[in-house]
Amino acid sequence: MTRAPLFVVGLLALAACSKAGLHHPAVGDHWHTAYGIFVCDHFLTPMQNITDVDGIHTHGDGLIHVHPFNSKTTGANADLGAFAKATGMTLTDTNIADEEFGSVKAGEDCNGKPMHLEVAVWDSAAATTPTIHTKDLASVAFDRDLSVMTIAAVPDGVEPPKPPWVDKLNQIRDVVSATTLPPADEVIAGDTPCPEPGTSLHILRFAKAPPMCIDAAKAYVATVTTTEGAFTVELDAKAAPKAVNVVVTLARYHFYDNSEFFQINTGAVMIGGDPVGQPAGSAGPGFSFSGERPASSAAYVAGAFGLMANDKGENGGQFFIVTAAQLPNQEPTLPVIGQVDDPDGTLAKINGHGTTSGNVFDPVTVKTITIEER
Hints:
The protein has helices spanning 80-87, 168-177, 241-252, 346-351; strands at residues 31-39, 42-43, 48-49, 56-59, 63-66, 90-91, 95-98, 102-105, 109-110, 113-122, 131-133, 147-155, 187-188, 205-206, 220-226, 229-235, 259-260, 263-265, 269-272, 304-309, 315-322, 336-341, 365-373. With 374 residues, it is mostly beta strands.
């Protein structure tokens, strides 16, 4: 289940770094592609852009970060054209242009020879033979995680090289694969029993989804205590009994204790609820389920509290809170299970730790979530 800067636009899917493989990114994935712009005989300095609203950007590190916020950058829409739009670059079959490096056109001279434009794509940092695209360059898609691309202006017969910073992909792979299983006393290996009242068990991994542990006829209030203060969530067990049951059960097992808001899109949405993923946002409690869906996109208003979903539309433990007045372009695919009550302005304080792209450089920790049954 995955992560990423979310929405100034649409919501997400269980933050989880995607497994490498030939397909296309979904909302909530967080893919990386090493890229470079090679002109004649040298690479240009990597561009920087971290204010995109659709979920494809770069930090000036030579990597394209692909973590779609909405359908504009999912599937085959996740292509170099979307990246060009986010960075302000012009990319056609005859012209590459950007305000940082100027313009390069097909036919211009390179050491006495005319250049043409192409895109070379390698499946991985270790791959040796690229696929060369010479037409529809803006439509070259991101179809696997940890791939390599060189946008090139070169003479005929010259194969563009990989970017010199391609090894950064190996560093990311090391981080993504460095998952650590929780201790045995923090795992329920068989059926998940309903938590005993006041239990001190701290469970981080569940082999199975819990049974129905709540009474849907009663009201449940979650108090979320963070390092920036506390707020409450009025959970709607009547409208979303399955999803509320999961959140209540996980909270009572202290699953959320000491986890972070790993994605905060300023003025749009914040996401938390993954205490085990490395990086945070890449895992869940060990099970998934199909929660209830709202009737329309009108449910995604300020203060809406709901659950993320993976690319199969299944839910886990990660949650989101909408901070925009209305989250645009979000289809009604994610459960909305409650409404935040925040008289002390805690959400505004948490929002201040975010960025437009969703990256969090000064984390906010969820100390604990307690549940009151009324």
